[in-house]
Amino acid sequence: PRRVLSGIQPTSDSFHLGNYLGAVRQWVALQDDFDEAFYFIPDMHAITMPQDPAQLRERTLRSVAQLLALGVDPERSTIYVQSHIPEIAQLTWVLQCLTGFGEASRMTQFKDKSSKGGLESASVGLFTYPILQAADIVAFDVDEVPVGEDQRQHLELTRDLAQRFNSRYGETFVVPKARIVSEYAKIYDLQNPTAKMSKSADSDAGLINLLDDPKRSAKKIRSAVTDSGSEIRFDREEKPGVSNLLTIQAALTGRSVDELVEGYVGKQYGHLKVDTADALTEFVTPLRGRVEELLDDRAVLHEVLAAGAAKARTTAAKTLAEVYEKIGFQPAT
Ligand code: TYM
What we know:
GO terms for molecular function: tryptophan-tRNA ligase activity. By secondary structure, the chain is mainly alpha-helical. About 55% of the residues lie in helices and about 5% in strands.
């Protein structure tokens, strides 16, 4: 079967607009294009940075509620929590033993995330994070992985490790491809439109959380940094702020950037901001309601996760058994 898989970390109370436009929106669309879809919450990745336990537990369920509210359908997709599939951690060990130390050292996310606290305090888990991600993917014989631009290097490593295993031990893993939609692969910070929108930015003034009060988010959009000049056109180099707002509005309204730009001839940045803020408000208002409803009946969320874990484990266990056999582990029975 042709399979698609992706994950989103439970490290915040709300997904942000970059998560949605860069990733989850594609997940929803791809449910119909592939035979099987696997979407999961990587809680094991989350603990590569310090997390409050009660908050992590809650955010994991909130993440599931958001996926469902955004249109990931448990009838068509397997939805699960990473730590419910112990085979992923077992497979990670095997892949770690195939990864060069130098190769792992070249992963840029580790350099970025460890730069704040320094190497002494960064965890080894943060260092091996991309290998866990590779295991997430190869465990399920996945063809495509829909992600934003910041995951490209992790997908390259995944491909390298899958190929390396295959050439050393014989055809075992499907070698997966990143599926990155260039227009939406990087949504930018509203205050700093050459940096990606991220929950770990120094200030949250440029971050749109889907579950925030829409009034607050609309205000952030109206205060977005725009560019010199006054013409509204799409130009990432000269007009990064304007281009970001055009991208966001186009995605949320289903209209093309070209069509939007035509409508703004002779108008000012203020018009673009107000319209983009309105489009966001229209999108998030019903979404917040649906998430609240889902969180009011947690039994349903737990059922979705139990069914997802059962299905995902069957697949991952098959892969792991094949891997253990190929590398020469003595069977337990
Ligand atoms: P995470 O949780 O940081 O982000 C989830 C998804 O959102 C995308 N994204 C963005 N896209 C466009 N513009 C932005 N500003 C933006 N910010 C985030 C990310 O690219 C990602 O697709 N390591 C992954 C989680 C993961 C995973 C996996 C993904 C673990 N295992 C296996 C795919 C397959 C991460 O931290 O994503």
